[in-house]
Amino acid sequence: MELKVLKDDDVAKMIRATKFRAVYAAPGVTDTVAGALIEVRKRIDRNRVRVVLDGSANALRLGYGQTDPMPMLLEHDVDVRVEPGLRMSLLVVDDQAVVFMLPAMMVEDPNLPRGPNALILSREQVDGVLVTVAPDYLKSSPNEEATKPNPPHIGKQPLTDAHVKAVEAEMVKNPPQRFDLTRTLNVFNAYVEFIELRLTGLQITRHTVKLPQDLILALRDEATSKRLRTSFNLLDGKSKVGQDADAVEVRVRKLRDRFVRPIGDIGAITLRSKRKEVDSLIEAIRADIEKFRKSVVERLTKEIASSRNKLVEGLTPALKKKPPQDLIDQVTGKVTVEHVTLYLTKRLEEVFPTAESVVGDMKLECVRKGVTYETLASGDFQKKVRDAFPYEDWDKPFSEFTAAKAEQLPLLNQ
After folding, report:
1. In whole angstroms, what is the distance from residue 32 CA to residue 120 CA?
2. In terms of DSSP bridges, do strands 22-26 and 49-53 run parallel, antiparallel, or are they unpaired?
């Protein structure tokens, strides 16, 4: 046995050299190989040229061969059979046999330089290969006496015109993406991903309460006046609970600054190589948020009550001078300070949230998404990625994984 580098053109060249039998089995077939098979079919008997293919739209979308060669082979009376899910490739030409791998074009350009991808089998192994795919080809030449063979292991069903038309219709309905764009996309998704960090419920000091319009009056309490417009700050700016919540926001902001890079209106990205570290920091923050949430209810209840009481205290003098009609209608006699205080307390209890409702929204969400075709093809996305992470060696992954370049989509290293 021998290892060898085998390209599509090499396969076609071997097929053209056929003298008395040729068997080609693979996930798909290209125009180049199909043309060689048709040439051989014109020279030798139909029962000495066989093709076995996956024959599905899925294989074609992955880049295993092309659509047009299948009807072309049938048109030229080549014996084509189907084996759904076939992924290995083998070729028998006369007394030579080779097992090889041609990559799906979605993953790699088949014309790029590569190491050995084929194993040349010995003459003694040729018959063993034929048993699996074309046992009726076991005789070495057409002049030898034929014996009734066992059925092949693969390729038992013939490829029909109806099958080809169904595949063609499916490819029209759901065509494959451009393979060069797909390969570029795979590289990006291997190295970067979109990320969105959503911190909710921790902005306690910015939480406001919308006040009833009839209570918005002139106030004597200067401290309360500063917090009062059409809404009222739930907590004082010096609140210890608010400061602790702000500290969590700072941690999330530092996390973003370290690992997340905005790239315009389309979002922000991060390096996939840093995912483990980012996830670890996110989980640590989430754990602290949960501890904070469980411990803060009692403290927050007191601070909310304090804020409400300050507002009652600040509003009472003004409402005592000019009681709202709603209060007057509920009191027999003159409205007292106690009436106003009780009235304000009840009205404000209706609009002030409970501590439980405030802390129930506390959470840190992390949403990750891969790069899409539309994003990759839009504007200067690739340049923005490189600018976002200027110290990353972008030439290396693209040299290793990216294949043919899209004409309208130059790669980063150009």
Report:
1. 21
2. parallel
Give CA–CA dist 321/325, Å, rounded: 12
Give the angle subtended at the CA of 136 by the CAs of 130 and 139, to the nearest 5°. Answer: 80
SS (H, E, C) 270-328: EEHHHHHHHHHHHHHHHHHHHHHHHHHHHHHHHHHHHHHHHHHHHHHHHHHHCCCHHHH
Question: CA triplet 197, 198, 201: central angle to 5 degrees?
Answer: 145
Q: Which domains does the chain show, CATH number per domain?
A: 2-176 (3.30.870.10), 181-401 (no CATH)
* Residues lower than pLDDT 70 in the chain: 106-107, 109-113, 139-148, 175-190, 213-214, 216-232, 236-237, 373-374, 376-379, 395-414
Query: Which residue carries 């902001």 as its tokens?
Result: 253
Residue 107 near residue 63, CB atoms below 8 Å: yes
Which value, to the nearest 10 degrees, does the dihedral of the CA atoms of residues 161, 60, 377, 196 take? 120
Q: Tell me the C-alpha distance between 180 and 185, whole Å.
A: 9
Amino acid (1-letter code) at residue 403: A
Distance of CA 148 to the CA centre of its chain: 53
Cβ–Cβ under 8 Å, residues 282 and 248: no
pTM above 0.85, yes or no: no
Q: How far is CA 192 from CA 182, 281, 320, 387, in A?
A: 15, 18, 64, 13
